[in-house]
Amino acid sequence: MVMVTDGSPVDAAPLQNFERQLLENYPFLAVLMTVLLAAPYAKIYEGDLRCWDWLFISGILVFLIAHPLSLLLPDRVGEALRELQGRGVLRPEEAISAFECRLNILANRWARVGGVAFAWIMCLVWLVAFRGDLQAQAWQYTIEFTIPGLLVEMALSAAAGRFVGRGLCYGTLADRLRVEGIIFRPIPGHRDGVAGLGPIGGVYFAHAILIVPFIAFLSVWVALLPLLGPQSAFWRLPYVGLLVFMVALEAVAVFRPLYAFNRVLLEWKQEMLGDPAVSGARMHEHGTITSEQQQRFMREQCDRIERMPTWVLSGTKCWLLVGVNILVMVTTPLLLVTGLVKV
Questions:
Q1: 269-276: long-range contacts (C-beta < 8 A, 24 or more apart)?
Q2: Is 3 helix (H, G, I), strand (E, B) or coil?
Q3: Which pLDDT belongs to residue 8?
């Protein structure tokens, strides 16, 4: 237990330290994981790729690609808060570091809950899926494939659950800034095109891009599973459930906080345009000015405020995010409607 500047305690967060060590050695661990994953199939099926469990393998490969990026999310949030502090968007400065520390503690707690929940859910799904092997006493297959696969899936599910829990916590950032009493002051006309809040938009954009590959993976396999025969039929319903969950997760962890910041910006914009005293106070920051200068400054300020966007994502990122989501989410329904894949 350590202390921050305001005297509040901070959790040691050993799992977060482990994640940092994992990130530092990730290339080596990813190669090792890939070799260990492929070796049993290469040994048993002697290179016949048609017999490999591509559902299992592709899921792990998608995870190995996305996981290191997910580990950078806490650092990205911290950098965003500090950059907003440096720009003067968030004040007072002395409160930001303490707020970041408390947010980090809370995110670790949410991550812990998410990791445990996801691991046990995956354990339950595997026990139901392979109960036939256990009842038939297919011990060799159970020992060589089922149990190792279960342990691997539980570990990966725990890691995914930590990402989900942490992301849900960061999704409440706008509300927590209000509760903490931190002053929020956007910058109309800022060069980032989103009133100085580009760093926050970058956080949620990166978060959404991390979720999209999993939605794409689930959508593709929901469409392909009926083509693989009855032995894969069991997994379709769980994958449909996971697909619905991931879409809901993106709505809660990405689009909801974007909407929350949109409401904050709208309120601030209406307050600025509706309160002449605020504009007058801003003018005195520039020293003594003539009446003509004052009028010109007021007009420029009002123009900048009126043109100020109320979303923290730039137009390019916003359209890219919406376009990718539409493309991914309509894939499976389109295949079903056209009859290329049977229900």
A1: 269/186, 269/305, 269/308, 269/310, 272/305, 273/302, 273/305, 273/306
A2: strand
A3: 44
Per residue in 242-252, pLDDT tens? 888 888 888 88
The pTM assigned to this predicted structure is 0.77
Answer whether 311's CB lies under 8 Å from 318's CB.
Answer: yes
Beta bridge partner(s), residue 2: 10
d(CA 299, CA 69): 44
Bridge partners, 10 (sequence order): 2
Per-residue pLDDT reduced to its tens digit, 113-153: 999 999 998 888 777 766 665 555 555 566 666 677 778 88
Contact 154, 122 (CB under 8 A): yes
By CB atoms closer than 10 A (0-12, 13-18, 19+), residue 315 is exposed
Task: Report residue 174: phi and psi, to 5°.
Answer: -60, -45
